[in-house]
Amino acid sequence: MATGRTADLRPTIDAALARNLVDTQFPQWAQLPLELLDPAGSDHVIYRLGEALSVRLPRHAGATGQATKEFEWLPRLAPHLPLAVPVPVGVGEPGFGYPWPWAVSRWLDGEAATVEALAGSSRAAVQLADFLKALQSFEPGSFPAGDPHEDLAGRSLAGRDRTTRTAIAAHEGTFDAAAMTELWDAALSAPGWDRPPVWFHGDFHTGNLLTVDGRLSAVIDFGGLGVGDPACDLTIAFTLMSGAGRAAFRAALGVDDATWTRGRGWALATGLNAYTSYAAVNPRVAAQTTRQITEALLG
Question: How far is CA 61 from CA 6, 8, 41, 201, in A?
Fold first, then answer.
């Protein structure tokens, strides 16, 4: 776990660092070329390693648990899921001044899913519902005694209350503050998940889906993987889908009213968080999160 001293550390990550880490810790891949994937996500710097592998280096302390979590769970989950996932093949150690674990995974071909290509596709919506149903039904067996897997603990909407209300007030000139407050209040007061906890992806949005030839092919970035209330994964209905696709998705997944309302709350909260953090410096994120917030308000 990151210490207070390293919590805000943003190490310099470049090709020389990635090359040194790979060559010293995984010499079997020392001859493979490294190619920076740009743009990468906000949490990792990603290099393609040869034709079949990728190297993912966390940018900040908040992303440092992903390498070991994915290494433990994705090889178990992958055979049960209807879309490909990035199965890790190794976890690297800190070195050369870089302070955190990092990962080498199988490369997945594909392009990031886009609203333009898939928003109106009921087929894609049902595929995503089938993926979530398969994920939610995965039964790994009993956890080892004395190992509570705290890194898999589900999160709550209530924990986002203060930051979400602050963001609503900050952006009332851009979005309908009254409508956002009404939705947020409804999401917080909706009945909670009263069934056995299930698996969720935890960051299930457009940017973490890949397509090949215009069809969904893979789901990536399982840093938020956990067990609990699956409402957070309904965010995909508001980042990717339009009305008809959303209806097909909800019907295929069999989502009740309370869970759907909590899902809308998750979409609102995460959309506002990303908008606050990135919209001023990234027009792409501004457009994506504006759509997410707007669609969440529509329901």
Answer: 7, 7, 15, 20
31 and 179, same domain (yes or no):
no
Sheet holding 209-212, edge to edge: 111-112, 209-212, 215-219
Q: Pick from 78, 298, 284, 47: which is nearest to 176 by CA? A: 298
Q: Which residues on neighbouring strands pair with residue 199, listed in sequence order?
A: 227
Please spell the DSSP secondary structure of 248-260, one letter per residue: HHHHHHT--HHHH
Q: Is the pLDDT of residue 276 over 70?
A: yes
Which residue range forms the structural domain that includes residue 67? 15-106
The reported pTM is 0.91
Q: Are 91 and 120 found together in one domain?
A: no
Closest listed residue to residue 108, CA positions, set 210, 261, 227, 200: 210
Q: Answer yes or no: is pLDDT of 110 > 80.
A: yes
| Pair 228, 86 in one domain | no
pLDDT of residue 7: 46
Question: How far, in Å, CA of 215 to CA of 133, rounded?
Answer: 19
Same structural domain for residues 86 and 118?
no
Query: CA 105, CA 44: separation in Å to the nearest integer?
Result: 13
